[in-house]
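Practice problem 4.
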């Protein structure tokens, strides 16, 4: 795992024991593994658009896109999770999600994923708690592990994945745009 997810990083923890995890999830792939995010946070899925690089950004922030007149930051989840960077293909897309800012407002962020799978209705019975990977690895951004059709899909808290430092930066952009 990347040192970005070591214990001590500020995230927005979402304990599986305090959340009802049942609901609809958009599932997608990264490095041939499946992940899910709540459909209610997904705004749209975009294919093949130009990402404008921005200077002095961390490697996992690819840049920004112009989405119908709104500038949306784009994060590459492969790089955020410290996976190997691969060349985009015809399945690569950007999932635009709504993230919760520290002041209670929301903003949009694009997430580069290897491909979108499907929307699944997941029940609480399908979900198990995130396993303990040891004291050095922070998994607060994984809200549970769903067992679906003989496979396992990690259910993500997208606010936790983005991280507090990125959310605070987004907050500044939103405030400056007023």
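Answer key:
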């Amino acid at each position: 795992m990347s040192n970005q997810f070591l214990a001590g990083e500020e995230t927005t923890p979402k304990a599986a024991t305090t959340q009802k995890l049942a609901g609809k999830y958009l599932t997608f792939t990264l490095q041939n593994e499946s992940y899910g995010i709540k459909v209610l946070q997904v705004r749209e899925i975009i294919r093949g658009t130009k990402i404008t690089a921005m200077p002095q950004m961390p490697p996992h922030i690819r840049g920004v896109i112009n989405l119908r007149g709104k500038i949306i930051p784009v994060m590459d989840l492969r790089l955020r999770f410290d996976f190997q960077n691969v060349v985009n293909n015809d399945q690569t897309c950007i999932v635009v999600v709504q993230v919760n800012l520290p002041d209670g407002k929301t903003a949009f962020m694009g997430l580069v994923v290897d491909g979108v799978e499907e929307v699944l209705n997941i029940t609480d019975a399908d979900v198990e708690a995130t396993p303990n990977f040891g004291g050095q690895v922070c998994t607060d951004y994984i809200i549970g592990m769903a067992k679906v059709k003989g496979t396992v899909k990690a259910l993500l808290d997208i606010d936790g994945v983005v991280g507090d430092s990125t959310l605070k930066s987004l907050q500044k952009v939103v405030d400056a745009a007023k």
